[in-house]
Amino acid sequence: RKGYTDLTISRLAKTSLMGNKKRSSFTILSMSITGILVVTVATILSCANPKNGADNNIYGHYVLELNTESGNREHPEREWNNLIQKNPLTDNLKQQIEHLDGVEKVVDFTWLHIETDLEGSEEIGVSGLLGLPESCFPELKKGILEGDASWEDLLSGDKIILNETIRRWLPELQVGDTLEIQTSDGNHTVTRSLEIIAIGNYPYGMVKHNFLLTAKEAADSLLPEDCTGYFHVFADQNYDKTLENNLKELMGDRELLSMTTWKDEYEVLRTFMTIMRSACTAFLAILSMICVMNLINTMVNSIHLRKKELGMMQAMGMTGSQLSKMLRLEGMFYTISTLFLSVGAGSILGYAAFLWAKKDGFLSVAVYHFPFGAVLIVITVLTFVQLLLTALLGRSVKKESLIERIRFSE
Fold it and tell me: Please, which of 5, 78, 228, 405 could form a disulfide with 69 given CB 3.0 to 4.6 Å?
């Protein structure tokens, strides 16, 4: 084979690595794929903060909403059009809540159960028209992705903002399209054509499963009944046990109302994320062990096949420390190449995964965080394994005499 007139330790290592490019490339590629997966998953998990998720999943700190059911023959009073005949979310209840210690404000949303001319709308939950007060318009305006809307447009009663999430199922909806809706309180039925003037992306806690957004006054004008669907209670802290008890006391035995707290959302997300982290860590740990075994097998096999050659090199004057240095250089080549691909490609893929998760609402991801901890662990583990492996291989080679190694036959 082709060699060098002047032989150095680095050239010996290069000769070994380039002598079997296929084996070296496969080892680096397999380890890098696992590293990329680790960095990508770690990016999503680092961005999935239960506190941010709770902020996204609830608008305010406490939410009182109508406990509606459809098709429950045992409790027909829970049907929406029956429930709003005596809507428990009254102005008197709102005033009582506003006077509780710790409450900063109460924002009430109108909610209308509707039927649309969208094919499959009932199956995917397109059943609500949400009316928001003017105090929420800056948030509506900020979330607009396509088109434009003014508060006067929404007050007109025939224009709406479409929540962008619906386009996962109905991608054909565009700004300028007109939807035919129908709503009824049991005594009155109203049909209206609504023009989509803008499409926006909004937190789940603000819009729930409602994809059609308009001004509260416009929604209230459609039916004579009080169609208030939500009380969003903003407090001076995320959670206060005393305030929660006071709210429950005000609700009394009203079975037609349900309450969600910021703490409820936080605890659910924290538990779910803990389980997911544990599962992902276990899975990635198994993959990492397989890749480490692949590295060990590659380097052990390389030493085994070159045992005679290394023996001859040592017979000509190669010292034990030079042998160890050569093995470290070979190990460093695998480690550095793997880290370069893992961290580089993993960071790019991780950011792309973050953008997808943010758009799709996965784990309520909202803010990007680079997974410094996971990257540091990957660097530390790979470096430690490589140093330990080269040290053990060096000792293993030195255990045999030069004569035994030179006599070695493949």
Answer: 78
